[in-house]
Design brief:
mainly beta, disordered N terminus, 30% strand, 5-stranded mixed beta sheet, single chain
Length: 293
């Protein structure tokens, strides 16, 4: 049996039996591994504080939906105790009824319970992939990443955190927050694709914190329409927003902005025109459109 620790919290990794959290108001993370089976009872689980991490057990490799994942994970109550069944692992929270773990849970279906527990931070099903709801994702180290290595939150208003090694982050559709490392100088790459577009009536607004100019990269290849290749500056524009810079994008028609990316406390304009500043970022490789420069 291995025990894995995260800074500032205790993580208990196991497979079967009865285990106790600290019960002291500090977050305990109960971490299950691939292949775990059997029955596990968790005592002193603190709703709103402690977390059950099924990411290694489920081993998801794409953005998930509550309805699909409900085929592998069910959440119900047995003998007055909340119960989570993940594949062949049955986890019981001693002394915690479902309604205490998840207020309103008795009237939800399995997919809604699953999504709500993830959104409230009680349950982790993946560190790399989110779903159609609100996700908080911390980029895992490179050896734990799947596929193209992009941390993809999917739809919804999400919060993503880069690691200190250099991360690939995609917030997806919705209004997202992307936080890069405030100290690391590893290069982070941020992705927007056409599926992430808002609309002119309701533009998506994403905020990026700790963006390092002349290091980090914004990749919007696959976001702009094909006709933008002839006049790219009709489909993207910069404006100053206090101490920040907004990058406005048009996903379908010229000058009809559907997305805004706020680079907090970053000045990409430096007194230049929007077109000149964008051209500089493109030439330096810090902005990627997929079109010839």
């Amino acid at each position: 049996m291995k025990t894995r620790y995260f800074p500032g919290q205790e993580t208990i990794q196991f497979g079967g039996g009865a285990y106790s959290g600290s019960g002291d108001g500090r977050r305990d993370t109960f971490l299950f591994e691939a292949g775990d089976t059997g029955s596990t009872a968790i005592r002193d689980f603190e709703p709103g504080v402690d977390v059950i991490d099924l990411s290694q057990l489920l081993n998801l490799d794409e953005v998930w939906s509550g309805s699909d994942l409900a085929n592998q994970v069910t959440i119900d109550e047995m003998d007055g105790k909340a119960r989570i069944t993940a594949m062949s692992e049955v986890i019981t929270l001693d002394t915690i009824p479902l309604e205490t773990l998840l207020p309103g849970g008795n009237t939800m279906d399995t997919a809604e319970r699953l999504s709500s527990l993830v959104e409230q931070g009680h349950l982790i099903v993946s560190h790399q992939f989110g779903h159609q709801g609100k996700d908080t994702l911390y980029a895992p180290p490179a050896p734990e990443l799947k596929g193209d290595g992009i941390v993809n939150a999917g739809a919804g208003d999400d919060h993503l955190y880069a690691n200190n090694e250099g991360s690939k982050l995609r917030g997806g559709s919705g209004n997202d927050i992307l936080e890069l490392s405030p100290t690391s100088h590893a290069i982070d790459r941020l992705y927007w694709r056409k599926e992430d577009a808002g609309s002119e009536a309701a533009p998506a607004y994403d905020r990026v914190f700790n963006f390092h100019s002349a290091e980090d990269v914004i990749d919007i290849s696959g976001f702009l329409p094909a006709e933008a290749s002839a006049q790219p500056y009709d489909y993207m524009a910069l404006n100053t927003n206090g101490s920040s810079t907004n990058l406005n994008l048009a996903s379908t028609s010229a000058h009809h902005w559907t997305n805004t990316i706020e680079l907090a406390n970053v000045d990409w304009l430096q007194g230049s025109s929007s077109e000149d500043a964008l051209k500089y970022q493109l030439e330096q490789g810090y902005l990627i459109t997929g079109f010839p420069i």
